[in-house]
Structures are given as C-alpha cells and as structure tokens.
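A common beginner's mistake is to predict each chain separately and then try to dock the pieces by hand. The better habit, illustrated here, is to supply every component at once so that their relative placement is modeled jointly.
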Amino acid sequence: MSEREALEPETDDRLAEPAWQGLVERVQSGEASGLEDLYRIFSSGIRFHLYRRFGSQDLDDKVHDIFLIVAQAIRGGELREPERLMGYVRTVVRRQVAGYIETAVQLRRKETDLDPGMPLSDSRSDPERSAIERQNVELALRVLNGVSKRDREVLIRFYLKEQTPLEICRDMGLTETQFRLIKSRAKARFGELGKSRLRLPAFLRRKASS
Amino acid sequence: MPAPANGRHLDGEEVLRYSMDEVTAEELPRWEEHLLTCDSCRSAVSECDAHVTAMRSAAAELRLAPRQRERRRRAFFPVLAPAAAALALLAVFALVFPPRAGRAPAAFAVHLAATRGPGLGEQAPARTPLLLQPDLTGLPAWSSYGLQVVDSAGKPVWRGSLAASAAARGVSIPPLAPGVYFARISSPQGELYREYGLEVGGAR
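With all components supplied together, the output reads:
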C-alpha cells in the first residue's frame, strides 16, 4: 500500500490509522503532494469549524491563513510528534478563532467613526443563508404546532430553555424513554418536512462541487 | 477523495450535544479532532445545527404568543388582590426571618453598552451571580433576542434568551471564573448583532 493510499479510510467500520509520519515528512521536505494532501485532509474540517463560529464571511481567507500556519509550522520543525498532527491542527484552529474574535473587538475600539457594537460577521453578505434559516424556522413551527401540548412543552424546555433531560423528566413526570421518543419524533418530522426544502449550508455546497 | 477519520464516529446523542455546545472538557478535544477529518459526522452536526437553530427560534416565537394572550386575559381579570396578599406575606416573612449571613450574594448588575477608548468593556466580580443589562438601542425590533456568553477562546459558557421588555431589568447568569468574556446579542434566528467585552474578577 502506498503512503497516499494509507491516508484513505478502508471501510466505514474499520477506520484506517493515518500515515501522519509520512505526510509530515513530505510536507517538511517540500513535496507538493504533501501540501496537497495536507490541504485535502484538513481544509473541509477547518472550514466546518470556522463556518460554525463566523458564518461564510471571509471564510476562504481564514481557512487559507490556518492552513499556512500549520504548513509553516510543520516545515519549520515545530511539530515534534507527527502522530499529534490532528491535535496540533485543532489547537491552531482554536487559537485563530480566539484571535479573530479579539481582533474584531479591538478593531471596533480603534475605528472611532464606527459603532463599537457592530457585529462580528455581516449576515447581509449571505442572504441565501438567512432565507434558508427562515424556511427552517417555518418548518420547526409546523413541527411544534403539530404535536400535543405536552410534547410542545417538552421541546420548548429542551431547545429554548435548555433544561437538561433529567430536569424535564422530573418536572413533567416523564421517563427517559418517553423524553427521547418525543425528541426523536420531532426531529424525524422536521427532516420529513424539510427533505425537499432543506439545503446544504454554503460550505458543504462548495465541498460537493469541488 | 474522502479523508481518513480518527476514532469512533459520534452517535446521535453526541451529535446533538455537540450541536448544543453541551460537551464536556474531556470530550471536546477528541470530538473536535474527529470532526476535522470525518465528512459524515460533520454532515450530521451541520444537519443537527440547522434543526436546533430552527427549533430554538420557533420555540421562542411560540413562547411569545401565549404571553400576549395572557396579558389580554389579565386586563379583564385583575390579579392585584392576590399579588398584594403575596407581597404582604413576603414582608412578614422577611421581618420574622431576616436574611442570614452566608447566603448567596446578590447579583451584580452589568450594563452592557457600546464604549470607545481603551479597555475591553465592562468589569464584574468573579464568582458572583451577574445581571446582564444589554443596551438594545438601534437593534431590529424583535420581541426577544438570543444572548450568549463566550470565553476568550470563543467557547460558549452560557446561553439564553432576552425579552426586549425585560432588557432593562436584565438577565441573570451564573457566576463566572476570572477571565475575559464576550456577551453576544443575536436575533431569534441566530444572526449576530453585537458583542460586548466583559472582564471578570482577576483579569483586571
């Protein structure tokens, strides 16, 4: 098995042990295939984490920044344990997220002609996402209006008030099984109603088309 | 070409917990590393995110409708007499059983407003319940907003909702450890509007 083949999963059940050592060595030696594989393996995951925090604003730039940091760190010999590559990438992502937040806050402090309370991301740049989210809310309203009063109360307590399952079961005299059924039925109904209307988020559409 | 996955896939309950930021400190590194390279789990989390966000917003909208009906009902059925009786009972209770030392401290009010100049923003004592009073001036007129508190790394430490009518009164949140935090105001659908810095306790 070649090293690049070793980076592919064997089956869904048997998860292959990634050949991180070889990948790190190829990146360190400057091989183009090393950087290509590094980007291919991690770019979607990095994009996923950033999208959940910041939406689609400047997403490509942020992903590129993080990839550069990781690649330069590997080439500079900063990754002493190649088998910890995933943990290192995760750490870089978390530090960058904290940095982006801090930068946004400080930028507002310095630009006196702007309202310091401006949001971190401009949702006006992603109207499609806003429209999809509104459609999903309509679906959720149909789900909530279509269940019994008791089930609706359970779902409101869980999703809006963020009570724990234990608290909800105790307050409403439910068993854990009853609670799980109510939740899973609502989720299944949401999925049924949205099958033809739910769309992939922007970052997944990009992945699907690449 | 699919990327290699690391470790066990997240099951349904774990996907939901991750989506709702209810992951323990021990679980978080493993799950985040797994999600860096597992397409199927990322898809599951994204689907769950859409579901949770929609359910939360829909529940907030539904929650307001019964309150509006209740207000109209109260206009026809005054409840002043029972309320006055309850207040009198509380006053008697407070006189007979005065507050003892050692009880939980009163909440510390924090007015969150846009500021200019150096410094992160507001300051608050650590390990004391806080009463956040965000300034909603200039925001779109929703009847309620999302309110989230995150730490300096962006990890959520508290999340709830804020009724516009209750903004002046504030929202109680549990005590925070010393550090830097950010309070985020968003629409019911999760669109981020504002973020306020907050220094707690020993971070000064």
